[in-house]
Amino acid sequence: MVPPKQQPFRSLSPAVWRASTVVFDSLDEFARRKERQPDGYSYGVTGTPTARELERQIAALEGAAHCVVTPSGQSALLTSLMGFVRAGDHLLISAACYTPMKILAEKWLINFGVHVEYYPPTMGAEIETYLRPNTKMICLESPGTITMEMQDVPAITAVARRHGVMTMMDNTWASPLAFKPLQHGVDLSIEAATKVLGGHSDLLLGAISMNDYSYYEVLRETQSVFGQQTSPDDCFLVLRGLKTLKVRFAAQGATTINIAEQLELHPLVQTVLLPALPSDAGHDIWKRDFSGTGCLFSVILTPAPDEAYAAFFDALRVFSIGASSGGVDSLAAFYPAALQAERLFAFTDQPVVRLSIGLEDVDELMADLHNGLHAFEKVLNRTGCITWGL
Ligand SMILES: Cc1ncc(COP(=O)(O)O)c(C=O)c1O
User: 151 in ligand 1 pocket by Cβ < 6 Å?
Assistant: First the structure.
């Protein structure tokens, strides 16, 4: 019989390697430890084998040569900007990009001497008119956060490449399963792995994927110099999430379309903002470039006082109230009219209800939304607004 210590250990799950300090076999190896970057191990902040395994798997999904993981989606956006944008550069950001990234640009980058400008999120090749000799990078997100505008990504990246301008895209909505930004000319593909890649609303993690090795070197250094170590435990949880990503994504996408189609027919619903619906303004681009739908979409209801929205949210029992997406539990969030009114190039000045669809039963979710809409209608009746007799 083989003694226990000689038996090989094999498991289906990756090991969780924790380390601040990496140790070396010789002084020579120690002295040359920095040469191990951007791939290897020199100190805990640049990652352990658990992080590398996650980077390898995300890069494979993205069709990328390299990936750098960071402690959150926002930190992936931050790392991409801090890695490449310098004082005097012009930075173009889609007006529908994730708000904290815009705050980072407006409150920090502007004070570092960066010229920040927003462009209309539905703009395609016409983005050329926004370029300046010092334009360094264009930030895309398609569909846009909250209002779901689709961007013509290949048209924008073709212009950018012609002018030697870098592009980065927040691809969180689609995930690499439905859209691979690098195949459409984007330089840096960003995922908030916090969302559907992790899938269970219990961690924060970001990923930047790319093909260019020199970008990879810059981003590994930026990630580590900014002290952005990603917890190996969180890397492990995302690795576990990836094992079920395809089935979750497909199931949540199917339920999303089902619910969105039902809501479109509801008399209290004015507009459903989901590019996978033929009625959506961005549907043609979605159909051309995307192979699936994310589980996040927005709804504009019939004009009503804020009180009616409060009643809607109070009535929800299956949906939890929260601003996130991609998890197995459904969420509902509210974005008041003022937010749209103050956003540049917004197409609506009405409140937006945003839903992230999880893995619950579709009938259960619809019943919950009907309860919410019923409560919404009651307030409309009480305040003398139109009633639909639901
Ligand atoms: C589109 C998008 N990008 C980035 C982020 C940031 O991700 P994290 O919460 O991991 O910082 C979010 C989070 O809500 C998001 O929705």
Answer: no
